[in-house]
Design brief:
Blueprint: E1 14-16, H1 25-37, H2 60-71, H3 73-76, H4 85-92, E2 98-102, H5 108-117, E3 126-130, H6 137-144, E4 148-151, H7 154-162, E5 166-170, E6 185-186, H8 189-196
Parallel strand pairs: 1-4, 2-3, 4-5, 5-6
The protein binds magnesium ion (MG).
Length: 203
Amino acid sequence: MNDAWREPIDPIRLAFDIDGVVADTMAVFVRLARERYGLTHLTKDDLRCYELHECLDVDREVLNDLICLTLDDEHTLQVPAMEGATEVLTRLARHGPLRFVTARIWPESITRWLHLTLHEVPGDRIQVIATGAPEAKRQVLHDLGIQFFLEDRLETCRHLALNGIQPFLYDQPWNRLPEGDEFPRIVSWDQFGEWVFPGNGGE
Ligand SMILES: [Mg+2]
């Protein structure tokens, strides 16, 4: 299932998760782990599962603190974008509104981040829905008429696939598991751009 997607993708049927897909959120997590807790050997490649306490030999309180810090308003605004994401999303915005569905509870800071990151996209073309829970994404996507969803969490991909939405798995260290092979894997935004705009045209 990791071959190039062969069916046309209608941009208006697409939506996106944010953290781990558009936003390189865990880059900030790793930086904070090094700066605040001296975990200088930690890299993003060590984040081999979504539930970090299951794969990192780090005290649970420390992990919880780092996750809270990473997601707070101040650090959200420091998150780098995934390489190539801005270019592809800016192109896609010419076809219609960009729809982002996040499991974050509060949408304000990540919405501000999106507006700053996608500064060439008119503000009214950026729509963000915060569900507060991954399982709630399906209904939101269904109501929006979304057919394809770019997501980095395997469990969410599975849930969506069982309910008629085609997930694309955005490659991250925490989803490089055999179970991920059932979904088309996106290894870069450039690759995804090729799927959405085949032949380097398709404006
Ligand atoms: Mg995510």
